[in-house]
Specification:
about 80% helix; about 230 residues; mainly alpha; 8 helices
Amino acid sequence: MEGIKSFFDSFKEFVWDIIGYLLPGSFLFILLSATISEKYFFYSKLSDEDHNLFVFIFLVLSYLLGYVIYGIGLYKEQVAGKKSFKKIIENTILDKNIFLECKKLYLKKENSKGNNVSDNIDVRELRTKVMSYIPESDQKIYTFTFRSELANHIGNICLFYGCTALIFCGIQYIFNFLFFNSEPKFIILYLLLIVFYLFLKKTRDRFYDISMRVPLSIFMAKENEKK
């Protein structure tokens, strides 16, 4: 029975991993097909081929684009450094009672085992450590992390694509060529993408904050039950 549960848990993680890359990639693919001039995009050629072949190519390219988007997100966070959204949220939690109490409880537990653990531990490291004591909550925690990452990737697409398209529209007007469609309805779409980023940013931050706090809360509750 335990083996079946483990199989389904692993399968669920695999499906979420696929979706986590496929959704952002397919979103970008659809934006490209809808807003780039046909002569620069190969959709028109693929649509004349076998439908099953197109679906396969669409899925593969979307999945690969998902990895590119993920890499862009990592680079963005690396460039932001201490001003990245993850660092800002983690630093906010650093001064909260939930972190201080959980850290105190964790150090006490480790010291009672004779483990020499440094008290110079940050939020992300403490979260990782306490999660080893609550493996039954991995799926719940991963759900919030997944939602945060998905909102982050979709938001990055909206921001970068909207800004890039608007810049190109200005360049196209000056040099008289067409790469991005620049009709009024598309200009509105590009502006909306940037606005959508602001909402997705809130979603991203909210779920990341929850994903960092929940393991600390669960660990504390579990340890307090033992007393």
